[in-house]
Amino acid sequence: MKNEKFERVIQVCYELSPENREREINGLTEAMNYFNTDNGLLISFNQHDAFMYKGKRIEVLPAWSFLTK
Q: The whole model's pTM is what?
């Protein structure tokens, strides 16, 4: 939180796959809309990616990378 505003919303899933991608991204963007932020982070077991989705930036990081930052 910065200046009483959330900077980024975080969601965790084991793996972002074609079967669960829509569900995970929709849940994350719903939280991003609720907290009025354009930055989301999805923590996974071993995936790394970054993309835009409906004008919002979503970064996918492996758990080990998130925990060592």
A: 0.86
Compute the radius of gyration of the chain from its Cα atoms. 12
Residue 26 maps to a domain: yes
Q: How far apart are CA 66 and CA 58, in angstroms?
A: 14
Span 9-65, pLDDT tens digits: 999 999 999 999 999 999 999 999 999 999 999 999 999 999 999 999 999 999 999
**What's the domain range around 57?**
9-67
Q: Structurally, how many domains does the chain consist of?
A: 1
Two structure tokens written together for 59: 């970064």
CA-CA-CA-CA dihedral for 63, 66, 68, 69, to nearest 10: 170
Closest CA to 9 of 34, 49, 53: 34
